[in-house]
Structure formats: structure tokens, C-alpha cells
Description:
Elements: H1 3-22, H2 41-45, H3 59-62, E1 73-81, E2 87-96, E3 102-111, E4 115-118, E5 124-128, E6 130-145, E7 153-169, E8 172-187, E9 191-201, E10 204-206, E11 211-213, E12 216-226, E13 231-241, E14 248-257, E15 261-268, E16 273-282, E17 285-294, E18 297-308, E19 313-318, E20 321-322, E21 331-337, E22 343-351, E23 357-364, E24 370-373, E25 386-396, E26 401-403, E27 407-411, H4 416-419
Parallel strand pairs: 20-27
Antiparallel strand pairs: 1-2, 1-18, 2-3, 3-6, 4-5, 6-7, 7-8, 8-9, 9-12, 10-11, 12-13, 13-14, 14-15, 15-16, 16-17, 17-18, 19-21, 21-24, 22-23, 22-25, 25-26, 25-27
Amino acid sequence: MTKFRLAVLSAVLSQSAWAAGFARAAMDAGLPGEYLNYTGYRALGMGRAYTALSEGPEAVSWNPAGLGYLRPNTISMTHMRTMEAFNLDSVFYAQPVFKKGAFGAGYIRQDSGNLTLTDDLNRGMGRYSDLQQTVMLGYGLQILSRNPAKKFLHRLAVGSSVKYSDQTLYNTSAGGWGLDIGALARFKYGLSAGLRVQNLVAPALKYETAVDKFTRSVILGLAASLWNGQLVLSADAGQALGADQNVRLNLGGEGTLWKVLKLRAGYDLRNSEAIFGFGYLFGRSEAAYSSDVTEAGVSQNIGFSYAFGGFPVTISANPEVFSPVGLRKSATFIIKTDAAARIYGWTLYIKDQDGEVARSFRGSGPPPGELVWDGSTQTGSMVAASNYLYTMEVTNAEGKKETTPPQVIRVVYGTPMDRMYEPTETP
């Protein structure tokens, strides 16, 4: 291949084909690696404001620290079809390691299909294709866990991802290694904050006449989970380093209806891009769809995820505040498990703020769907008015144990209507 033709191909890559697919605004045109910011159906549906959420296997791309919170094995797949007929496919898998965080792997592929090759006089020179792909391997680990009734910061996780990106353009190709790092903190009141450095080590694709180096960026994300996770709001702010770009701002939201329907929306302020989507939950799986709407047209996204293995147990209290002498004299713990899980035994612990067990329930086999607590101790006396932490410990047939994250339930006394809905946090 002549240097002239390589120069033509490089110009096509940086100025038209790649930019048309995923860098819709002028300030993004030609940035290598931009396609990595269009992965994961949930992140896409929420306007790519995902740094502080990153709860699934796609965390390996969005914020590897999120792998530290992963519990079941999970696989996620997303297909994107852009208005220019580009295809972007991503598949992620995450495997938790017993109380040692989780590993994640991902594969992202962008394929332009057949494009028309022209010279600098816009004369046809045949057809070509542009294939870009990245393989990622990440790890996340919780490094801090605190009593949620006493501390504002509940948990903190860190992680990193190693990636190899390459591009095949006409009859030439190039590749390079990169590294991302991230941190994800969870606080009281359903708040979380995430920080990631994308391309801390930036892949550099070296061609005969040019080098395409991925842009290093710092992204800060904030998220709030409201009404027991029925509504999630998120925001990301990102700044490219060493590139002439304005701050990128992304907003996202997700609501849950009837426990099975997810409604998602987002907005990219810098690129004036609106995103709308929905998902349907069936068991531990989800099928989802979203569309990106810009002045140029609409892009379509579909995705699917499936979780298996691990200890698929979740527990919540209803109500979170009750009075043993009030109108609602007890709380019901609602427990959900995967029917296929091999659970050998379980124990529900209710502890005071000093970590002492006030009441416990235990049994063999899978736990029941509901357990009722009337505020009594193991000896039958009533507990003091205070915040209490509840966790469920489950044991599989091999003897391995895992405990659900601690949550707060509050016992109050006095006038029921005045005290029943006191906040669950103490000053």
C-alpha cells in the first residue's frame, strides 16, 4: 500500500467514517476510541451517566470499581445500530470471587460495513471497511465497609481494567494497550459517587503515516437511589486531558413500575442528544431497548442480561419504621431468592448499633419469602427505641457463606402517627 493511499485512509477514518458513527458533535470528531463510550444497554438508556452506578458486568468498561459490588455471575450483551448503519456490539461477563471482589471481561466491536473509498478529489477508489475492537479484563474490590447506622460513608470499592484495542482499515491494522482505573463510594440516603480515569494508559495505534492515541479523560459521577430504588437519578461530568474539548455533561434517570418494568431516559448536554428506553425483567434476566435521538436522526439499541450462580438473595423491610405499641406493630422482611440457587441454610441477624444481636431467625434450605419481627428480643422482651441493622447470611451446599449488605430498620415508641415515619438515620 502506498503512503498516499494510507494518508487517504487515515483522513477517511478520522474525518468521516469513525466520526459519523459515534462522534456526532464537532468537538468529538475524530477522537480515537470514542466507541467505548457506547456500551451496555442500561448505561445507554440512562444517557451514559453511569460512572456512579456501574453495578453490572459492563462496569469493566464504565467504572471497574463497580465490580467490587457484584454478587451473582452475570452476562450482558448490547447491539447498537446507528443512523449511519454502523454496528456496535458489546458483550460483558463478570465472575465474583468469594468475598474477594469480582473479575470482569468484555469485548467491544465496531464495524462500519462496506464504505466507499475516495481520493482527495472525491473520485471513487473502490470499497473498504473499518473494524475497531477492544478486549478488556478488569477487577474490582471493596476496601471499606462501615456500619450504615453510624457512618455517612457505607462502602468504598476500587478497580482497574486492562484493555487491548486494535483497528483494521483497508489492508492495514494497528493496536495498542491501555489501562483504566476507578473508585466507587456508597453513602447514606441512597447516594453514591464514582470517579474513573479513562485511558490512564492510553492505547496508541501506530500506522505507517500517523498515530491515533486514545484521549485520556477524568469522569466524575453522582447518583441517588430514591424510594427503595424505585427511582434512580444520575449525572456524569467528564473532562478530556490534552484535547480541545469542553466538559461533557450527561444526565440519566431510571424508574421501576410493578417490579418488572424499567423506564429509562437521559440527555447528553454537550451533544444535544436525548435518550429514551425501557427494560422488562423476568426472573434474573432483562431484555431492554433504547433509542438515541439527535438532529441527524435516531440510533437503536437492544440489550439482554442474565444472572446466575452466586447467592441471589435480597432482603428488605416493610415498613422501615414501626412501633410495637403503634398501629403498625411489626415489620415484615421480604426475602427473594433464585429458585435454582443451592442454599443449604440461612440466618437473619438483627443487631443494635453496638453490633450486638438483638434477634435472629434461622433455618435450613432456602429462606421463606417473608419473616415478621414484632420488636422482641430472643428472650421475649422488647428492644429499645433505636436503629437496628439487619443482614441475612446464606450458606451453600459446599459450606461457603455470604452476607447481604447491612440495612437499617427503626423501632420507635410514643404516639404512633407522630413517630411512625421518622427518618431512619440518626444525626
